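#help-structures

NK: newbie question. if I give both the sequence and a SMILES, will the prediction place the ligand too? trying with magnesium ion
OV: yes, paste both and it writes out the complex. here, I ran yours:
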Amino acid sequence: MNENRKNLKPKPKRQKRVTLFTGPGCIWCVKAKNFFKKHKIKFNEIDVTKNKKAADDCKKHTGGGGIPVILIENRWIAGFNENLIKTVFGNPIKIGEKEIIGLVGESGSGKSTVARILSKKLGLPIYNISEVVRKEELYSEFDERRDAFIVDIEKLENFFEDKKDFIAEGLVAHYIPSDILVILRVNPEKISERLAERGYSEEKIKENEEAERFAVIATEAIENPKAKRILHIDTTNRTPEEIVELILKGLSGEEVFEEIDWLE
Ligand SMILES: Nc1ncnc2c1ncn2[C@@H]1O[C@H](COP(=O)(O)OP(=O)(O)OP(=O)(O)O)[C@@H](O)[C@H]1O
Ligand SMILES: [Mg+2]
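OV: that's the protein plus ligand as structure tokens.
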């Protein structure tokens, strides 16, 4: 075979390195092992009861929540969670390539709350977009009436251009090209309750409640998609943990796009 042709052959893909930290009498460790065996994924197993350094490493990276601990490349995962493993292992998102998850929704929809849990699970850092916009001065002007900066989309895009592997959460997260954009929806009445608790003015509460009722952000995000995939979730009767589980399902390849219409 001549040299040129040889170069055309795709490189065989290397399997991501997996290490399983286990111990005796641990049912979830066995489940994790069976999962990897079933999917023909090779792994190293380390018994933390016989390896002090490994036990310390696990504690350091996961905060010490027990076993199993699963290390995929450089990502430490506490416990065994099938959707989470599928996501981190690479279906459809792959470590090493850009991995960007956007979380968008109206004010009070739960973006920051969900981002915190998801960040811990996936080992990805969070960018709170309003914070980034303020700190990095990614705005064009200040809107006095709304008491808010007007985001300069181009500056925002430039800021994120060379970043990879992160969660971006905020009212304009849909402006960032992401692998997956999660749109969090919530019954407008809940938005009112939550913003009242925060001491927002009547006017501001009303404005935000209306925005959710008329799906302002969701429509913007769905009609002008910059993400490869979109998840659309009604969070109203779900705990933040349940929402994260659903997002993990979406990340692992399942379709998660719920019918939501508050005007019905
Ligand atoms: N699924 C949920 N169930 C119950 N309460 C929730 C849920 N998600 C968020 N909350 C609560 O609602 C409030 C608003 O949540 P959060 O701050 O995460 O919203 P946000 O979308 O980040 O808002 P903002 O755009 O103003 O930053 C918080 O008090 C939070 O604890
Ligand atoms: Mg927030």
